[in-house]
Design goal:
It contains eleven helices and 14 strands. It has helices at about 5, 35-55, 70, 100-120, 125-140, 150-160, 170-190, 235-240, 255-275, 290-295, 305-320, and strands spanning about 20-25, 25-35, 80-85, 85-90, 95-100, 125, 165, 190, 205-210, 215-220, 230-235, 280-285, 325-330, 350. Helix 4 runs antiparallel to helix 7. A hairpin with a 2-residue loop joins strand 1 and strand 2 (about 25-35). The chain is globular. It starts with a helix and ends with a strand. By secondary structure, it is an alpha+beta fold.
Length: about 350
């Protein structure tokens, strides 16, 4: 009681009560869509009775399993906007974002690092770097695509240098700038909870790539779109740098090409499917490494794949799409991407 949201409800009502109770270690979190104050009192009493059934009440309120201090602070109070586990939830808009104090502290730290690097210094103690990256991972619970920017940071964490020099690791510096941009963006556009939930796909894309080019198909599953087939021939500078028995010094692997194919598939889906906000998308590929990269939004070793994953993550964020479903499917010979390059022509071919 005591909140304006509670006071705005009628005392009694006959509408349905929808609620959910989550227990995280010693935190009891109730999510309620009430139609009356009576319903809220019922849920509150049921939770407290349940706690005392497991942890008996103490005559001394200061020793009771239900923290009197937290109740007096209003943590057990019904509010449409609530801070839970470091995130601010808005029950009216169905959004969440990192708690303001935590977000501002992170932004200040990242901005300080960027300024150091711009002055040619950029030296950061490893422990501070490790702690800040861990906080970024927590923040990206509300921005899943943000994880796709952290691959350069992961390589630093794997080597554990005493000092991290951002001015000498441009990939890490670019990642830090991107993370700061995503955090700032959430102040104006908090993440909708629907953007965090996976589900049966609205659209499905299948792609295959080879040293000649890439091709795939796009079609609707739960939502309608124009069934689309695309093909694209790789530029000469790409094909000449593909690693093979004939070219062992090449810097691009077949898996890198498959990852590039997934990114191109996504761009085709943006055009073919149209509105992708809060939509579920499934991407199929016969290449296990690229499927793993998209699933984790991270690449451990391939710099090429790392940059492609970052681009894909940013496109997902820009479209505010739900988490992707990526599946590995068995490949077949003579797939669309294995057609000799002379059959592609000089431009991509679209067939509807």
């Amino acid at each position: 009681t005591g909140s304006k949201d509670y006071a705005a409800l009628p005392v009694a009502g006959a509408g349905p009560l929808r609620y959910m109770l989550e227990v995280y270690v010693d935190d009891f979190i109730s999510l309620v869509i009430p139609t009356s104050q009576d319903q809220l009192r019922h849920v509150a009493n049921a939770i407290m009775e349940g706690i005392h059934d497991v942890f008996p009440a103490d005559p001394d309120d200061s020793n009771d399993p239900i923290s009197e201090k937290k109740l007096l602070k209003g943590e057990g109070q019904y509010d449409a906007i609530k801070t839970i586990l470091g995130f601010d939830f808005n029950g009216s808009d169905k959004t969440l974002w990192l708690e303001e104090a935590k977000r501002e502290k992170l932004l200040t730290t990242l901005q300080g690092w960027i300024r150091l690097a711009s002055r040619g210094a950029g030296g950061i103690l490893y422990k501070q770097f490790e702690t800040t990256v861990a906080k970024l991972r927590h923040a990206f619970t509300a921005i899943p695509a943000g994880v796709g920017l952290l691959s350069p940071c992961n390589r630093i964490l794997a080597t554990k240098p005493p000092i991290v020099w951002l001015n000498k690791h441009q990939g890490v510096l670019v990642a830090i700038r991107g993370c700061r941009t995503l955090l700032r963006e959430t102040t104006k556009n908090p993440t909708r909870c629907r953007e965090l939930v996976s589900g049966w796909p609205d659209y499905i894309g299948i792609v295959d790539a080879s040293s000649h080019g890439v091709g795939g198909v796009v079609f609707g599953e739960s939502a309608a779109c124009v069934p689309t087939v695309f093909r694209w021939e790789w530029p000469k500078d790409i094909t000449s740098d593909v690693k093979s028995f004939a070219n062992p010094t090449g810097s691009i692997t077949n898996s890198d090409l498959e990852m590039a194919g997934i990114l191109l598939l996504w761009l085709v889906m943006e055009g073919a499917c149209g509105h992708l906000q809060e939509k579920h998308v499934a991407l199929f590929s016969d290449n296990s490494p690229s499927v793993a990269w998209v699933t984790r939004l991270a690449s451990r070793k391939s710099i090429v794949a790392e940059q492609l994953v970052q681009a894909l993550a940013l496109r997902i964020k820009a479209n505010r799409t739900c988490p992707l479903t990526t599946l590995h499917i068995e490949g077949k010979r003579n797939a669309i991407a294995d057609v000799p390059s002379r059959s592609f022509g000089s431009n991509p071919a679209w067939h509807c």
